[in-house]
Amino acid sequence: MKLEGSLDAFGLPDIFQLLSYTKKTGGLHLHNATRDGVVYFASGAVTGATADTSRQLLARRSSSCS
User: Fold this and answer.
1) Which member of 6, 25, 38, 55 has the greatest number of CB atoms within 10 A?
2) What's the pTM value of the predicted model, to 2 decimals?
3) Phi and psi dihedrals of 21, rounded to 5?
4) DSSP state of 40
């Protein structure tokens, strides 16, 4: 499933809830005029995130965490 568009229609919490509820796996790419980021999901759970063009790691959740 590919979703594209502005978050004006849906807030970021709504998007996270949709991905969690539907147990999606993949990356949610977010960007504005000056910044880029990706939030990674596995079976609906957030597993990590990167930010900016350098893809600096912001967070990672190991599979052993509940």
Assistant:
1) 38
2) 0.72
3) -60, -40
4) E
